[in-house]
Specification:
This protein has 179 residues and is of the alpha/beta class. Helices cover 35% and strands 19% of the residues. Bound molecules: zinc ion (ZN).
Length: 179
């Protein structure tokens, strides 16, 4: 069983205080994956920064994705549907002190499709924790990105090398679901 995980596709990360121009490129591909997962009734899980202004990360990045603000909401292009799961997180990893692992296990998920921002940061740390917990990892390279091309590419290399991530594309995953 596969689950689609969408990390930090929030207003602050795409158009707000931590704006990333390169995020525009991945939005349509994540949308395609979302609708394919919905069609196949597979889990779509948003894991979103939902910070308190006292979180440790504020020192490094400044205020971003503060719980309850518009900046912490999923971008309008990817608005979650009724049955989608939304989880808040306080650090880079989507697993750290969140219910993600138990949600995946209760649905018999063995493979996670990681999408969103940033390839070398929250996606990478989420992949680490997925790998430590025995999940297979697929990364559609057209559904993740970073502030720079270099960070994105070195991020992909790292994911492939150390977490045995299958680097693929949205279309290939969609085709696979149709089989
Ligand atoms: Zn954060």
């Amino acid at each position: 069983m596969k689950a689609l995980i969408i990390v930090d596709m929030l207003n602050d990360f795409v158009t707000g205080s931590l704006k990333c121009e390169r995020a525009q490129r991945i939005i349509p591909h994540i949308r395609d994956l979302m609708s394919s997962f919905h069609k196949h009734k597979l889990p779509v899980i948003f894991v979103n920064d939902s910070h308190l202004d006292t979180d440790f990360e504020m020192e490094r990045w400044g205020a971003h994705a503060i719980e309850g603000t518009e900046g912490a909401e999923v971008i309008p292009e990817l608005t979650p549907e009724k049955d989608d799961i939304i989880i808040g997180k306080h650090v880079y990893s989507s697993f750290f002190e969140t219910p993600l692992d138990s949600i995946l296990r209760s649905r018999k998920v063995d493979t996670v499709i990681l999408t969103g921002l940033h390839t070398h940061l929250c996606v990478r740390h989420t992949a680490a924790d997925a790998f430590f917990r025995g999940y297979k990892i697929q990364i559609p390279e057209d559904c993740v990105d970073s502030f720079t091309k270099e960070d994105h590419q070195s991020g992909l290399e790292y994911l492939k090398e150390y977490y045995a991530a299958n680097i693929t594309k949205a279309d290939a995953i969609i085709k696979d679901l149709k089989k």
